[in-house]
Write a structure and sequence with these properties.
Strand content of chain B: 15-25%
Largest interface: A-B, 36 and 34 residues
Number of helices of chain B: 12
Strand order of the largest sheet of chain B: 4-5-10-6-7
Number of strands of chain A: 5
Strand order of the largest sheet of chain A: 2-1-5-3-4
CATH class of the largest domain in chain A: Alpha Beta
Largest sheet of chain A: 5 strands, mixed
Shape of chain A: globular
CATH topology of the largest domain in chain A: Ubiquitin-like (UB roll)
Number of helices of chain A: 6
Oligomer: heterodimer
Number of strands of chain B: 14
Structural class of chain A: alpha+beta
Chain lengths: 164, 298
Amino acid sequence: MSDAVSELRDVEVTVNGTVRRERVEPRLTLADFLRHTLGLTGTHVGCEHGVCGCCTVRLDGAAVRSCILFAVQAHGRRIETVEGLADGESLHPLQEAFSDHGALQCGFCTPGFLMTAIEFLDRYPDPDEEAVRDALSGSLCRCTGYQSIVAAVLDAARRLRQGG
Amino acid sequence: MKPAPFAYRDPDTVDEVLALLAEHGDDAKLLAGGQSLGPMLNMRVVSPAVVVDLNRVKALAGRGGSASGGFVIGALVRQADLEDDPAFAAAQPLAAAALPFIAHRPIRNRGTVAGSLVHADPAAEWGGVVLALDARIEVRQAGGASPRTVAAEDFFTGILETAVEPDELLAEIRLPPWPEDARWGFREFARRRGDFALAGVACRFEVDGAGGGRSVRIGLFGVGDTAVRARRAEAVLEGETPGPEVFAAAAAAVQDEVEPLDDGHASAGYRRHLAGVLVEDALADAWARNGGDEGEAA
């Protein structure tokens, strides 16, 4: 298998609107590709087995765990990471709501919460609290508790419905 | 927590997949959604020489109603595809009701039904669902042999073990036509939303002309080595008039027949208790659904 495993693959992906071409090992996860190959360290890696939600990004719009997806599988696809949320210096309404509600403490889980929540709000622009809690249940925060995160997502939904 | 090196193959056709399996056998792993295989690769629970990615095989991505009125789910159909498909909810209400309980949306966005089945975690919802629905699972192998079909009740052979051999591909799942006026229930208990269930049940039954239960199926998950039918509980309801007393008797039968495991999440005794409670509740839900019997449908 030694010959086979050394085979590198060309990957072309559109990350936050920019086309990136790289040559990678097949075993490289999308999370490590984003962080180490492309230098986009906003995507965080927590548990590395799909449980904590920190590494969540969007793949062709769908929120996915980038730690259990291989970079080669993203070939030809569109990826959005937390770095793509803000418009220059101007935060996305969801990020503003997180800031206003103190929905983070150490911030390690925050990129995953943001990318999970933004996909959820695309599908459910006017959710109730129960739906928000369900949508966020796959993301773990170990310091703030979830109260302020839920409040921020509900507030962000209001802001987005009013046009940001 | 990084996978060991592997060779990556991403064929376009089922025949190519089967040829790769014939060539590599046990040294190859099939990758569909990757939501079970990914963690196992990262933790090096498995270190296959070759990973065969199915995601380019369009022939495996199909889903929809079959000529016989059933519903076919190809090996690449993701949980979220079905969750968002009103036609699936209309055709297969029990399976549709189970979908939101499966992990979390980002997992359902990638994870496939076939992958869940072939991974065969004993606590996975689909195990109970395919047993309750008498699903049939089509398996293909290289060498031109005709596909073989495995009944759901013959599919699970042990913890993380199924009837699918290392050189075989689970090609599709066939859910039979939904019986008119069938009653169904789905219940599970997990400590947190999206966790694997400590115990769960998918059930379905019809009512015969004399008012007795007919074609009773009770599929349990999380209470043993594999998903399993609660045959004694099914027999309690078969031919009997549905109602609270019969459902309680079925629950007692379930608690007699299950063989749950002790683990760090729950004791065997607690799981046994839960299985009975959930079966009783799911049967009551089923009876109350579709109009039930007015007055009985409390």
